[in-house]
Each structure stands twice: as structure tokens, then as C-alpha cells.
Design brief:
Radius of gyration: 20 Å
Shape: globular
Helix content: 25-40%
Strand content: 15-25%
Number of domains: 2
Structural class: alpha/beta
CATH class of the largest domain: Alpha Beta
Number of helices: 11
Bound molecules: S-adenosylmethionine
CATH topology of the largest domain: Rossmann fold
CATH architecture of the largest domain: 3-Layer(aba) Sandwich
Order of helices and strands: HEHEHHHHHEHEHEHEEEH
Distance between the termini: 37 Å
Largest sheet: 8 strands, mixed
């Protein structure tokens, strides 16, 4: 199986800052993997890349147990599009009647019980679809201030997203695990393919995203030791600076780049332009790589830096 570009990229039910939905075609079209082993994703986040690639076998992980618990609940059918609809209709009605205070009571309930239904409710009604936790590990994003958030069309959209990921998982051998990236990489075998999308250097630091000084360097060294294929998402440059880590570690590797806007707030002025980079293991670039306009040679990168 080659990882082919699918025509319709779909979004998963959970949202997270830095979500790669718009970059999935760019990632998929540049990777060439035979699909014989497992798809490993040590920094799963929303899971948008996994769900669109839809490999037969996968081992995916994140240190954020709420994300993993949610997807395990969909996998073992504790959460279905049907019971989720009933839940969102009821909770949405309470939110409409009681407003903001109801959002905060669900947030308190979630922080006490860690219920995955509540997690989805908060993720889809909090400010700007953020996922952020305080130093005690409590979800702390404020309300989006729209008491009528869960209108019928919005509930249908979310339930369709759950139905879609349920179909993507059906008949597949996928393992969702709560663990640090080091543990996931230690499980990699020669036929596997690893896709890595770590936090970008403290950009969204919170309880689950403490990207310590030196951690990107440690990760880069570990990636280079892998005996299997990999693709590593990172950034090349933004308006203010260039990512020196990229050239320091990966000057001899195939790298493709692409401009992307990250939305960090509701207004245009808060959009951050970023040049994204995908480092690919030699031998795992797509056939089109040789002619690709997105390709950067190490020399071009050096000039840019
Ligand atoms: C940039 S996000 C991944 C986004 C994902 N590719 C997507 O499109 O939704 C990084 C993820 O890494 C997780 N994470 C942070 N530190 C980690 C660590 N030490 N080990 C494993 N996962 C970690 C965070 O919880 C977060 O979900």
C-alpha cells in the first residue's frame, strides 16, 4: 500500500491547536510506504493524520490521556454516533437554558471524573476549539460564549465525524496508548512507518505540552536512529525566525516545505504564517519527489538560514 492522496480529507471530532487537517494532503503525497508494518504516531493529537491515512495496523500514542481515552471509547463502542447525539442534545439544551454557568459546571464535572463525553462537549464548546490544561492537569479553556452552540446541524456534524472515525477503525488492528514518545519509538520495528508531529518548541505549552529545552534535539537524534521509515513534521521559518534545529540535524535528509497559516485567534490579524517542513527518511519519499517544487535542498536551506 502506498500512502496516496485521498480526495476528501475529513476532520476528526476532537480539535487541537496545531491540527494538521489542511496539511494532510501535503504529508500524504510526499510519503511512500508499502504499508506492510504498523503506522506509528507518537504525538497523536486530534488523530487527523491517522484517520485519513487509515492504515491496516497502527500503534498511536499521546501523553494526553483524555485524547486516548476518547478514541479508545469510540473503538470499543462506549461512544457511538447514536449515544453521543442523545448526550449532546440533552447537554446542549441545558447549555442553551443555563448559559455560561452550565459550561463551567461541565468543566468542573470533567475535571473530577474525566468522562470522555464531557471532554468532547468541552472541546466543541470552548473558546476557539482549544485544548489546554493548567499545571494541575485540569482543563481550563473558557466558554466560547455561544449558549446555542449545539444546534441540530452542529450536533449532526460532530456525530458524522464520530461515525467516520468508527468506519475508519472498523476491521483494523489499531492500538491507542498513553505514553511518552520515547516509549513509542522504542517499539518501532523495521517494517513500521513513524509519523511525528511534536509540539513546536513551547508554542502552546501546557500540562501535556511541556516541550523542554533540548527535547527537540533528543527527538531528532532518536529519529535518526530509527530502523524504519519516518516523516517528521516541524517548522522551517516564520516571520520572526528560522528553525536552526532543522538544518543542524537534518541537512542530509529529504525535506519538503509548504506555507501554512495557523489560526491562533478569531481575527485575521492573529493568523500566524509559518513555513512547514516535512523531513522524510531517505527511501520513503514519493516518486514525484525528484520533480517536486516543494523540495528544498540542504543548500537552499542553508541560504535561507
Ligand atoms: C502538535 S500536537 C499533534 C497534532 C496532530 N498531528 C494533529 O494534527 O492533531 C502534539 C501532541 O503531542 C502530545 N505530546 C506532548 N508531549 C508529548 C510527549 N512527551 N510524548 C508524547 N506525546 C506528547 C500533545 O499532547 C499533543 O497532543
Amino acid at each position: 500500500m502506498n500512502v496516496r492522496v485521498k480526495r476528501h480529507i475529513k476532520a476528526p471530532p476532537l480539535k487541537i491547536q496545531g491540527i494538521k487537517t489542511k496539511l494532510v494532503p501535503f504529508i500524504m503525497k510526499n510519503i511512500n510506504w508499502d504499508g506492510n508494518g504498523r503506522w506509528l504516531e507518537p504525538f497523536l493529537g486530534s488523530g487527523v493524520v491517522l484517520f485519513n491515512v487509515a492504515p491496516q495496523q497502527a500503534l498511536v500514542a499521546d501523553t494526553n490521556e483524555h485524547i486516548i481515552t476518547f478514541y479508545q471509547a469510540v473503538q470499543n463502542q462506549t461512544i457511538t454516533p447514536f449515544n453521543l447525539r442523545a448526550f449532546l442534545e440533552q447537554e446542549g439544551e441545558y447549555l442553551k437554558k443555563q448559559g455560561e454557568s452550565y459550561y463551567y459546571s461541565v468543566r468542573e464535572r470533567f475535571n473530577a471524573t474525566h468522562n470522555p463525553f464531557d471532554f468532547l462537549f468541552l472541546n466543541r464548546s470552548c473558546f476557539n476549539g482549544m485544548m489546554r490544561f493548567n499545571s494541575k492537569g485540569e482543563f481550563n479553556v473558557p466558554f466560547c460564549r455561544k449558549p446555542e452552540r449545539f444546534r441540530p446541524a452542529y450536533i449532526t456534524k460532530i456525530c458524522n465525524q464520530v461515525a467516520w472515525i468508527t468506519r475508519q477503525m472498523a476491521g483494523k488492528d489499531w492500538q491507542f496508548m498513553v505514553q511518552d514518545w520515547r516509549e513509542t519509538l522504542a517499539l518501532a520495528e523495521v517494517d513500521d512507518f513513524v509519523y511525528l508531529d511534536p509540539p513546536y518548541n513551547d508554542r502552546h505549552a501546557d500540562y501535556y505540552n511541556r516541550w523542554q529545552e533540548g527535547e527537540a534535539d533528543e527527538l531528532a537524534e532518536a529519529i535518526k536512529q530509527l530502523q524504519c521509515g519516518f516523516a517528521y513534521s516541524t517548522w522551517k521559518e516564520n516571520k520572526y525566525r528560522v528553525n536552526e534545529h532543522l538544518l543542524a540535524h537534518f541537512a542530509d535528509y529529504p525535506i519538503v516545505t509548504r506555507n501554512h497559516f495557523y489560526h491562533v485567534g478569531p481575527t485575521e490579524s492573529l493568523r500566524n504564517a509559518m513555513e512547514e517542513a516535512l523531513v522524510i527518511a531517505p527511501g520513503y519519499t514519493a516518486e514525484s519527489y525528484a520533480d517536486s517544487l516543494e523540495k528544498q535542498t540542504a543548500q537552499q536551506l542553508t541560504l535561507a538560514l
